[in-house]
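HUMAN: Forgive my ignorance: could you write out one protein's sequence and backbone structure tokens?

ASSISTANT:
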Amino acid sequence: MKNIIIATSLTLISSVSLLAQAGSSFEALDTDGNGAISLSESKALPKLMAQFKDLDTDANGELSKSEYEKFSG
């Protein structure tokens, strides 16, 4: 049973990571659904996190959909 739980957890974690990388959709990255991507949420996609400061043009600590659209990942 313990092995099944571990395998299921690893599969779920891998799936979420792949979804964020493959889809890279704003909605998938905005995990709390507040209409913006926080620095914490951007960690799911390392390339986005690396560009976060440059993309956050209004310096409010979040990426709006229009700011995210400038992401080159």
Notes: Helices lie at 2-23, 26-29, 39-42, 46-55, 65-68.
